[in-house]
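in:
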């Protein structure tokens, strides 16, 4: 028999948006539990240890004006530093590699000295021990007769007045059964909304030194021949750890992908780039708890922040909270925090289910 328990709020997803929603609700005194399908927190904030720092395999930057991120890092005691910009740009096409004066790709941005993943880890550590459940995928959300929602997992049913859906909308529609079904307009929107980074492979190559800087290069490059289409310097403060990273279409990943990547790095940055100390490939399209099937077909980014995501569904009890749903800064960490803030505020300002007006 399935285990049953009840909470004020169930948050689905322990990425940065889900953890922020849960932390805000717990701080406001709401009985909240956060469910995560993976065996780790962070979602698309994922960092690989690389002493004396870390290498980001997902989100990397934040920018001027993104005050929520800056404030969160400061509160959590996570040091940030400026993205390296100095040097020239490389352009690769069928005719070869050209060097253009100045960094024509990167703009001023900040990074996390210990990796973006530490934001999620620090937030999770602040939650009560029983407020976070890993390895707990959600299979269904059903409207309860009393106006709340039942959240079903393979092992339990959790009843809640509110549910915060902190996973990409298209992923939710592919993995979760809704009863009653979402409105046709909302369901179509959710299925069509792209997943930020969902169709991308991120590649990080670590080296003993940032040798490209010594050659007057910024580590910034664009390529029309690939497999990496866009490259940047990912070295830590003072160039340690030294690393380059690039993005490739996820469909380019195959048996010979790593060999093609190191060959391209050598073509761009010279023989020293041919043999990285380590090469990390994170194909986000193959992550079952990030990307739905055929994620590469979802390409209409104008759907990010759609007005339908700003309104709760299922009688006002289901709230959207991922970067794809943010009205501002969608696709950024800042957008994830803004969406989480909106969802938590809406929950806290909604009357209890027992006094709420019945849904139309």
């Amino acid at each position: 028999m399935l285990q049953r328990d009840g909470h004020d709020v169930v948050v689905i997803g322990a990425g940065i948006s889900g953890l922020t929603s849960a932390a805000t609700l717990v701080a406001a005194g709401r009985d909240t539990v956060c469910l995560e399908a993976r065996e780790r927190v962070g979602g698309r904030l994922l960092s690989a240890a690389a002493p004396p720092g870390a290498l980001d395999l997902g989100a990397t930057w934040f920018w001027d004006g993104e005050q929520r991120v800056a404030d969160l890092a400061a509160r959590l005691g996570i040091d940030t530093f400026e993205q390296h910009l100095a040097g020239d740009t490389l352009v690769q096409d069928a005719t070869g590699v050209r060097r253009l004066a100045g960094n024509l790709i990167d703009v001023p941005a900040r990074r996390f000295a210990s990796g973006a993943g530490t934001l999620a880890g620090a937030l999770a550590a602040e939650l009560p021990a029983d407020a976070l459940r890993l390895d707990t995928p959600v299979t269904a959300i059903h409207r309860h007769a009393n106006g709340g929602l039942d959240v079903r997992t393979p092992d339990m049913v959790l009843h809640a007045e509110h549910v915060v859906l902190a996973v990409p909308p298209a992923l939710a529609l592919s993995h979760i059964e809704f009863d009653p079904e979402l409105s046709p307009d909302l369901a179509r929107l959710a299925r069509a909304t792209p997943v930020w980074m969902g169709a991308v492979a991120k590649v990080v190559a670590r080296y003993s030194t940032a040798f490209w800087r010594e050659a007057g290069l910024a580590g910034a490059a664009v390529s029309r021949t690939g497999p990496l289409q866009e490259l940047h310097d990912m070295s830590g403060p003072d160039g340690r750890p030294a690393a380059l990273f690039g993005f490739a279409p996820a469909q380019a990943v195959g048996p010979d992908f790593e060999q093609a990547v190191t060959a391209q790095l050598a073509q761009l940055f010279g023989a020293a780039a041919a043999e990285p100390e380590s090469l990390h490939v994170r194909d986000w399209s193959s992550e079952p708890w990030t990307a739905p099937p055929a994620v590469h077909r979802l390409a209409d980014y104008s759907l990010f922040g759609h007005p339908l995501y700003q309104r709760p569904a299922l009688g006002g009890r289901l709230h959207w909270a991922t970067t794809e749903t943010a009205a501002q800064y969608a696709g950024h960490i800042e957008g994830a925090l803004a969406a989480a803030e909106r969802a938590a505020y809406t929950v806290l300002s909604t009357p209890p289910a027992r006094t709420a007006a019945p849904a139309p």
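note: Residues 1-46+116-195+288-360 form a domain with the FAD/NAD(P)-binding domain fold (CATH 3.50.50.60).
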